[in-house]
Design brief:
- With 62 residues, the chain is mainly α.
- It has one domain.
- The protein is 73% helix and 0% strand.
- The chain has two helices and no strands.
- The longest helix is centred in the middle third of the chain and has 39 residues.
- The termini are far apart.
Length: 62
C-alpha cells in the first residue's frame, strides 16, 4: 500500500477509534455515574453496581 493511502487510512481510523472509545466510556461509566449522582441528591441510596453484573445479588435478596 502506498504511504499516502496508509496515512489517509490512519487519518480516518484514529478519530473513529477515539470516538468509539469515548462512546463506550460514556455508556459504561459516565452516564450511570451521572444517574447515580442525581438519585443520591434526591435521597435514593443503594449499593454501587459492578460493571458486569450490576446489582443482581442485591436484587435476588429482595
Amino acid at each position: 500500500m502506498p504511504p499516502l493511502m496508509e496515512n489517509l487510512l490512519l487519518l480516518i481510523l484514529v478519530p473513529l477509534l477515539c470516538l468509539a472509545l469515548f462512546c463506550l466510556c460514556n455508556i459504561l461509566w459516565l452516564r450511570p455515574e451521572k444517574i447515580r449522582k442525581r438519585l443520591r441528591r434526591q435521597g435514593v441510596k443503594g449499593p454501587k453496581p459492578t460493571l458486569l453484573d450490576g446489582n443482581t445479588k442485591e436484587m435476588k435478596r429482595i
